[in-house]
Amino acid sequence: MALALKAFAYWKEGKRLSSHAELWKYSKILAEEFGEWALVTFQQASSMHICFYEEWCTKEHVELALKSVRELVGKIAGFILGNS
Question: How far is residue 65's CA from residue 70's CA, in Å, rounded to a whole number?
Answer without folding.
Answer: 9
